[in-house]
UniProtKB/TrEMBL annotation:
The gene is panC. This is Pantothenate synthetase. It holds the Pfam family Pantoate_ligase. Catalyzes the condensation of pantoate with beta-alanine in an ATP-dependent reaction via a pantoyl-adenylate intermediate. It catalyses: (R)-pantoate + beta-alanine + ATP = (R)-pantothenate + AMP + diphosphate + H(+).
Length: 284
């Protein structure tokens, strides 16, 4: 496994693989890798000849300076974890390499319809930052396949739209969320939770499951009632809900009783930590 710390090292590798017509899979990350990320790398391994993982904490997607400062950075541990997997290259650019002219007057990629709802509402500019950095990374790595976790379902759908709208030739693949035994979705931010919060946090997933059960098993079609009940359950468990929403899985538009493929999505705060999760709900 090699580490490319700059663009020219990355380009040299990519060029030689391209010349040999090898299939390249790419897993973009912000580091602090956990089992969820490792399952993305495993998926990449199954699908491609060469696997590239990037580690870059992207300042452009943080609307909260404190969140950016607190974001866990564990490069040595990440490299160690990846060295135990079958990954050919880690790309670890600096901020200056990704944004050589700064971010103030940067050309940005905006994905309408996905950027201002759900997580986009509470984090203005976040998805523009994600779309912009992912586009830049795609141009640098030139992958055939890119792998993203379903835990960030809105991000996954936004990137699929971006790729379709801009005619990018990368195949975007989603991988199911990895969970702890408690049901808590694996996330880099979980390391910021206290012992007490780690006991409270799984109620996010439990609430999503209860909502799914009410729709799939009990035939409940009053989605706004269900979302209200879910928020109340979260509050009772000590979380501060930001949103609970039931959406059409394909485009994240508001769902109605005729839609068959739904996604239930939620975000909630536990102290200073913002947790998100989502599950599929299938009525077909
Ligand atoms: O999901 C993440 O870790 C980030 O949003 C991503 C896709 C690496 C872009 O910075």
């Amino acid at each position: 496994m090699a580490i490319a710390e700059n663009l020219s090292a990355l380009k040299t590798r990519i060029k030689s693989w391209r010349q040999q017509n090898e299939v390249i899979a790419f897993v973009p990350t912000m580091g602090n890798l956990h089992e969820g990320h490792l399952s993305l790398v495993q998926k990449a391994r199954e699908l491609a000849d060469r696997v590239v993982v990037s580690i870059f904490v992207n300042p452009l997607q943080f609307n909260d300076q404190q969140d950016l400062t607190n974001y866990p950075r564990t490069l040595n541990d990440d490299v160690q974890l990846l060295s135990e997997l079958d990954c050919e290259l880690i790309f670890t650019p600096t901020e200056e390499m990704i944004y050589p002219n700064g971010m103030a007057s940067l050309t940005k990629v905006i994905v309408p319809g996905f950027d201002d709802k759900l997580c986009g509402k509470g984090r203005p500019g976040h998805f523009d930052g994600v779309a912009t950095v992912v586009t830049k990374l795609f141009n640098m790595v030139q992958p055939d396949i890119a792998i993203f976790g379903e835990k960030d379902y809105q991000q996954l759908m936004l990137i699929k739209k971006l790729v379709a709208d801009l005619n990018l030739t990368v195949d975007v693949i989603g991988v199911p969320t990895r969970r702890q035994d408690s049901g808590l979705a694996m996330s880099s931010r979980n390391t910021l939770l206290t012992q007490k919060q780690l006991v409270q946090a799984p109620s996010l997933y439990k609430t999503l499951l209860a909502t799914k059960h009410a729709i799939e098993e009990q035939g409940e079609t009053d989605f706004s009632l269900l979302c209200g009940q879910a928020k109340q359950q979260l509050q009772e468990a000590g979380l501060e809900p930001e949103y609970v929403d039931i959406r059409r899985a394909e485009d994240l538009e508001l769902a109605n009783a005729n839609d068959k493929q739904l996604r239930i999505l939620a975000a909630a705060r536990l102290g200073s930590v913002r947790l998100i999760d989502n599950i599929a709900c299938d009525l077909a």
